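Give me structure tokens for this 253-residue protein.
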Amino acid sequence: MAIVQGKDFVVIAADTLRTIVVNGITQGTAHGCKIARSGQVYFVWAGDVKQPPFYDVESTARMVAAANPDPGKAGSEFERRILPGVEAWMREVSAHPKSDDAKHLATKHLLFSVVFVSMKAAAPTFSLWSFNLLHEGRKVSITPEEHICTGPCGGRTITVVRLGDNADDHKEDNAIRDRDTAISAAFRMVQHDAKSFPATVGEPIIEVALGPFGDQWLPLSNPCREEEKYAGKPEKKSDKSEGRKEGHRDKSQ
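Here you go.
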């Protein structure tokens, strides 16, 4: 995924390919949204995001975003709620060091990332959480790391963030001058990852641009936007309002 943040706008881009991994073994892929909205906060996720019954990044992020319109508070509450389940899963994996899950975990340095984004007082604000894995011999521990930007972060003209299994980069890009350029840049970053890592990143690519112009989904017609229409409206239940029905119990990217 990619985030491009300017003085009064922020663009989020994500691919739609999910890798289905069961007990440490890749079983296949499926397409699904990685950008969603709950209340006034958008969130985007990447990595090993589901391990039933221990943790589920998307459902936890949706719950905390609905209750916390401030991305920073949403991120802190997310960390508080998700970490016990993640640690319990890691203890379970560590108890079986020869399992496929343990072998899969040994290759990872970033378990998952989640970003909460909103417009706060006309300035784009995002809270980025990376759940990093620290390997010490055979012992693996989880280290959450928070990065909050109220735009533009660090006084930069433009902040560019690329996140996922294949990239973790924060930089300034002076070539990006406006929202339209940012939209193109975010798209190209995810598209580059899709071409470089086709097993875990795949098109179509979905984007959301937030700013004084309102919220803009790109492309205009996409399944993620259809889900967003019903976000925060449980009283109008329908097949769409209940979101995606995933027929697998696994971790997906």
